[in-house]
Amino acid sequence: MDKQTYNKIKSMTKSHDDLMQEHLKDDEFQYAWLRQCIEDYINDGDFTVFYRAIERVVKARTTVSQLARDLNMNRGNLSEILNGKIEPKMQTAFKILNGLGYEITLTKKASA
Q1: CA 20 to 30 Å from 66, out of 7, 16, 57, 101?
Q2: CB atoms < 10 A from the CB of 77, how many?
Q3: Is the overall model pTM greater than 0.85, yes or no?
């Protein structure tokens, strides 16, 4: 394939990241995606994926700096949490989710 054809095809496609950011503008998509990421986190214990998901939602809505101000948190600490460099306490995770307009509820599993 020549470079001109490649560039034409590339200009007509979207990257996964661009497509994801487009979808994350929708509140219902954000909710469903975060819910799935929380379930994955509970099952596999990998907090990095969960907090990267929160970071993407934050960036779709506002900025990390603005959220930190809204939550009265240190911007650097919030950024490290969202980048998976430090694992926050549950209280901090709840605070971030609450700042995004979500709450955590506890439900009993159905009997098998």
Answers
A1: 16
A2: 14
A3: no
In three-state secondary structure terms, 45 is: coil
Where would I find the beta strands (DSSP E) of the chain? none
Sequence letter at residue 46: D
Burial 23-57 (b: 16+ CB within 10 A, else e): ebeeeeebeebbeebbeebeeeeeeeebbebbbbb
44, two tokens: 């596999």
CA distances from 86 to 19, 28, 53, 77, 106 (A): 28, 28, 15, 8, 25
1-47 pLDDT tens trace: 788 887 777 777 778 788 888 888 899 999 999 999 888 988 898 88
